[in-house]
Amino acid sequence: MESKRSGWHSLEGWPIQAGTRQIEIQLGRVWLQGELTVPAKPQGIVLFAHGSGSSRFSPRNQFVATELNKANLATCLFDLLSLEEEREDQVNARYRFDIALLAQRLVSVTDWLESHLQSINELPMGYFGASTGAAAALIAAAQRPDLIKAVVSRGGRPDMAVHVLAKVQAATLLLVGGLDDVVLELNRKAYRQLPDDICKELVIIDGAGHLFEEHGKLAQVAQYAAQWFEKYLGD
Which is it for strands 171-177 and 148-154: parallel, antiparallel or unpaired? Predict the structure, then answer.
């Protein structure tokens, strides 16, 4: 299912060289595009699940991904909607709240990457989910407990994955802005529904709103995320 389109790359022989490459995979009739960045000595790989109306070009996710790369973590920012679906979604918001679809796409991308990593270098995997993407990440993690070792949610909506929270086995970190009152309460309820026997933590970042746009707040998100993934994906 590898793309042979001009300008896009397969993962044959990956990771031969560190760096960033654009990749594209085919899932049935749908082509999904992503950006894969590999540091010199990766200790794990983090797949990003974007929030509603966002994409792999989100400056917030790009910022966090760059910080994770500095912590020797490979990152894969994949759009879970095709270009055609994204265009339609911008008009009618048809797909952005279809959590089941987004979760299944994330599972498919995970399986595709894992099949290529097997013969090269088995890197532990984690998910970074933002907004509604956090729900998709938790659902996908529950479906792939042997693969996904850690999940980080940024301003997420884990409540939209309420039917699977009790099945999540990955170490889960919920990051919420202290000014994001509604989402904070939803995260508190979701935190209590996660299993008590897994590593889980709810961190409230004081003075931050839903998008962590306040000065220095997104840097705190990146720091917490890097520490979490280093702990649960590292050696």
Answer: parallel
- In this prediction the pTM is 0.90
Tens-of-pLDDT digits for all 235 residues of the chain?
344 443 334 454 454 468 888 888 888 888 888 899 989 888 999 999 986 556 677 889 999 999 999 999 999 998 888 777 777 767 776 676 789 999 999 999 999 888 866 534 578 999 999 999 999 999 999 999 999 999 999 999 999 999 999 999 999 999 999 999 999 999 999 999 999 999 999 999 999 999 999 999 999 999 999 999 999 997 6
Give the pair of three-digit tokens for residue 139: 């659902």
- Write down the domain spans for the chain: 38-233
Superfamily of domain 38-233: Alpha/Beta hydrolase fold, catalytic domain (3.40.50.1820)
CB 44 within 8 A of CB 74: yes
d(CA 230, CA 227): 5
Q: Which of 235, 234, 230, 209 has its CA nearest to residue 67?
A: 230
User: C-alpha 119: how far from its chain's center?
Assistant: 23
